[in-house]
Amino acid sequence: MTTTTTSPVLTATGVTMRFGGLTAVRSVDLDVHPGEIVGLIGPNGAGKTTFFNCLTGLYVPTEGNVAYQGTVLPPKPHLVTQAGIARTFQNIRLFANMTVLENVLVGRHTRTKEGLWSALLRGPGFKRAEAASKARAMELLEFTGLADKADHLSRNLAYGEQRKLEIARALASDPGLLLLDEPTAGMNPQETRATEELVFAIRDMGTAVLVIEHDMRFIFNLCDRVAVLVQGQKLIEGTSDVVQSDERVIAAYLGTPFEGAPGAEEAAEVTAAEAGAAKAGPTDGGATDSGSTEAGATDGGPANPGAANPGAARNEAQRGTTARTEDGQ
Amino acid sequence: MTTDKTQPTPAHEAETGTAHTTEAGTTAPRTTWLRALTAAGGVAAVASTFLAWTWTAEFPGDLTVYGYPGGLQLLTLVLGIVTAVFALAALGLKGLRWLTPSGSTQALRLLALGTFAVTWFTVIAIAVDLGGMVNLEPGGWIAALVTAAPVATTFLLPDDTRPLCRPKQLPSWAEILIIAAVFATGLYVVNYGIQTDADHPEPFLGYLIAVGFTAVALVKAGLVSRISELTTAYRSTTLVAALITAIVFPFFQDKSSFTELGVNIAIFATVALGLNIVVGLAGLLDLGYVAFLGVGAYTAALVSGAAASTIDVKFPFWAAVIIGGVVSLIFGVVIGAPTLRLRGDYLAIVTLGFGEIFRLAMLNLDGTSGPSVTNGPDGIPNIPPLEIFGFNFNDDHSFAGLTLDSNGNYYLLMLLVTILVVLIFSRAGNSRIGRAWVAIREDETAATAMGINGFRVKLIAFALGATLAGVAGAVWAHFQSTVVPEQYVFAGPVPPNSTFLVAAVILGGMGTIGGPLLGATLLYLIPKKLEFLQDYQLLAFGIALILLMRFRPEGIVPNRRQQLEYHETGQLDVPGATGLKDGAVGVTKAEA
Ligand SMILES: Nc1ncnc2c1ncn2[C@@H]1O[C@H](COP(=O)(O)OP(=O)(O)OP(=O)(O)O)[C@@H](O)[C@H]1O
Ligand SMILES: [Mg+2]
């Protein structure tokens, strides 16, 4: 495990993403250093996935830029992967009708060069490269525990295995930074534990990890640093302890109103956009009030997300999310 | 007659009395009886073909002779034998059990239905063609009756479909012999179809019915899976066998027009396979593919030294082929570069437009509406015959007592191109670039996020497809010895047209090698043999494709991947991109 004193692998500066009137990500700065596991949390719709898409070039950020090891990346997904950032998707996006092995081999694409000619001529170089790719892919399947499923179609894997395969496929490009978008979504507790181990192992191989997750126990166990995104803005960034005890985070998750919430205007904007055609105006009190009282009443006030019963905390976090937009006003 | 036919039944019963005890003692006596009756029915059907079915030789194939089956009777004869043999295999007759590795009932039903359909088709055709039932001799009535009986018995049989059982280990020479026999049979069956009388639709229709039912029966019996196991195990033997079969084809044709059918099939199959790289592997819908064939053909014609060519040069054939390919490649890149950056449907629209523009441009580059290049609607006729190393393709040549005529020469040349394209398809498909194509087809966003330069990879597929069409076009121009614009339309009654090619790929099976070859063969041969379809060909085409999409969306030859995609049930469902987001969060919530 390398120290964090080296220059960062990832530097995101002032990343902003607007969709029409909606600012999904607003001026977010984030560094990831080699050998680090960084968590990215935030309520649903906070803009975490959008931020990932900006990092990987799937979206061209409206403002700001992303640098990998000091070099600013062009917003083209294949160039980002080529540079050394690999990712998984929140909504699994495997090549469903390819085998498990083929999926990982596709991940090797940027690290191999054999073009059409060498495929047609099948020289010794081609065979060597192909064998090396296969060997590396099998190694990764071994690493993620999918080796015995190599010849299965990826669509036939169980849900948890599909998530693992996404990780194996991403690792195939030998990334310096791995972005995981909710890697344990839909997993049972054992699988989640196994994924935790897997992420540690990936870090130990020398790949920095930036991970989005709603499972607080998972995040706080794993991460050296956690950044909290609320309504597109970075609320706070720090170690697990700092983040867990920050009342603004608790508030953001649980929906307690507080002074100077960073997303206030933002939420108003969202409501305005949503009201859109109806021209109902940004202020409509009644319904939202009852919403927040209800949330407050059932949850019984602020709670520490990292408290003794993380499951319950997560539950509250999820429910708090619903109240969030309304409370923001 | 009929009583005569029931006699074998007790005999078979006796034989199987011992055999069926080996089947774990589960066969009910009723089942045994029904199988024996089916076998008897098969034998009866065979016997009935030795009778006269009609009194006049006006019906194609001469079905008037006692003791000598002819024409459509032969199909009933063969199907009757096959039905009887499979029924005996179902009865557990020693030495025949290998015929039904995955169950016999479904195969028997299909065979019985096939025999019935062919026979009744013949009988009805006799009555209709000759104007009334009076034209049927007693033999025709008997045949109709005895082929109906097995349909009844097989549908009373219980279904015994089982997973493919382990084959008995055969020595490898025997397995290789089996492969050889399969190819020989295949060649015979194809020859039979090609050589049917094109003046009358009846023999070919009967042939289609017989082949269709038998093929499905063989699939159901598990024989096809068994054979594909063998061909995978002996890959190089299979390739050699396929090659030999293809090479000897022209030597078996007694009419030059049959060989010509072969050349055309080879050309269209090759072009369809080239299109399959674009459509099947990379998932790009190219609706103007025929234009690339045209580019190759026109280019080759222009440099062929034809008197009508506006360019006064005569390139050797190899140079013409290369130039045809290269010019096609250039057009491919010019068309592809701007459109492949966009997603999906734009390519279909642009290629559709390109196809039409090509045809219109060829029509108008006649010296009056535009520069004089192509002679407009007259095209470039009288392309001189090919000559490679003094081997003139329009002359007959004899080797070892076998004569190869002009069509035969072109057939072998075209076969070379087919082999080249098959090689390119399989090598490119099974490599880094091929995987990238499939990945793009499966999920373009994920593919680019895995580091694939989508535009570049798609352009390579598109350009490769165009080049292969150009090469085939260059050969085609020489074979036809003329090129005219009207050959290159989007849809029309005569192949090649873009619809024909796309349909061949879809019908045969996308992403496979065998699919487009088979698809093009069927789509070319059927209209050729059934000329009455001519006016309704596009309608029949459309109906066939709709039926296919409904019942076998993966095509006749399924890609392993797609077969699973369309037919696997009870599989873990991968939720769609949008559904999953909610689903995933939902699970997290529920779990918390
Ligand atoms: N392509 C798009 N066009 C318009 N709006 C978008 C687009 N992508 C995301 N958004 C919006 O941006 C906001 C942030 O969405 P995002 O998916 O990034 O949230 P998230 O933090 O990943 O949430 P979750 O935890 O549910 O995954 C949402 O309001 C979403 O509707
Ligand atoms: Mg998300």
Q: What report would you give on this structure?
A:
The complex is a heterodimer of chains A (329) and B (592). With 329 residues, chain A is of the alpha/beta class. Chain A has 3 domains: 1-84 and 175-244, 3-Layer(aba) Sandwich (Rossmann fold), CATH 3.40.50.300; 95-172, no CATH class; 261-327, no CATH class. Chain A has 13 helices and 10 strands. Chain A has helices spanning 48-55, 77-83, 100-107, 116-121, 124-144, 159-171, 189-204, 216-222, 240-245, 247-254, 264-275, 285-299, 310-327; strands at residues 10-19, 22-32, 37-41, 63-68, 71-72, 85-87, 177-181, 208-212, 225-230, 233-238. In chain A, the strands form 2 sheets. Chain A has a 6-stranded mixed β-sheet with strand order 6-7-8-3-9-10, sandwiched between helices. A 4-stranded antiparallel β-sheet of chain A has the order 2-1-4-5. The longest helix of chain A has 21 residues, at 124-144. The N and C termini of chain A lie far apart (45 Å). Chain B has 592 residues and is mainly α. Chain B folds into 3 domains: 11-244, no CATH class; 273-394 and 406-425 and 452-558, no CATH class; 559-592, no CATH class. Chain B is 65% helix and 2% strand. Chain B contains 23 helices and 4 strands. In chain B, helix 4 runs antiparallel to helix 5 (105-130), helix 11 runs antiparallel to helix 18 (454-480) and helix 12 (289-302) runs parallel beside helix 14. Chain B is globular and about 80 Å long. The relative contact order of chain B is 0.09. The model of chain B is unreliable at 1-25 and 567-592 (pLDDT under 50). Chains A and B meet through helix 2, helix 3, helix 4, helix 5 and helix 6 of A and helix 15, helix 16, helix 17, helix 18 and helix 22 of B. The structure holds adenosine-5'-triphosphate (ATP) and magnesium ion. Magnesium ion is lined by residues 48-49, 90, 181 of chain A.
